[in-house]
Design goal:
The chain has six helices and no strands. It is mostly helical. The chain has one domain. Helix 2 packs parallel to helix 5.
Length: about 120
């Protein structure tokens, strides 16, 4: 039960920070800015070794938000560089995120076929 609470707490805190940034900086900061900022922040913090402790504490609460995607890309890149050398820097992030990106595309397509999207 404690890990569910920590996931909720960490994930909620990350969302709260993004919402506060948008609320207090309207119209200068848009949701697109938050998206890019969170992915970049997750990647930088991961590269510095500061994001993994957050993942250890918050589990999915830290890996599901966009900052977790940045963390995934960085960790995939670092692992590929260890295994393949400098060429791993070009493919590691994409390889690490491939399953999630593919699932989003496939399931998004299936839902669009099943339901009648309006727009």
């Amino acid at each position: 039960m404690g890990s569910i609470f920590m996931a909720f707490l960490i994930g909620g805190a990350l969302c709260l920070i993004g919402q506060l940034i948008m609320d207090f900086t309207k119209p200068a900061v848009t949701p697109g800015h938050i998206l890019v900022g969170y992915i970049t922040a997750g990647a930088v913090l991961s590269g510095l070794g500061l994001y993994q402790p957050l993942v250890d504490i918050g589990g999915t609460g830290a890996t599901i938000p966009l900052s977790g995607f940045g963390h995934l890309l960085t960790q995939g890149t670092l692992k590929a560089v260890e295994q393949k050398g400098i060429l791993g820097a070009l493919s590691g992030g994409a390889e690490a995120a491939a399953a999630g990106i593919t699932a989003a595309i496939v399931f998004g397509y299936i839902i669009a076929v099943i339901f009648n999207p309006k727009g």
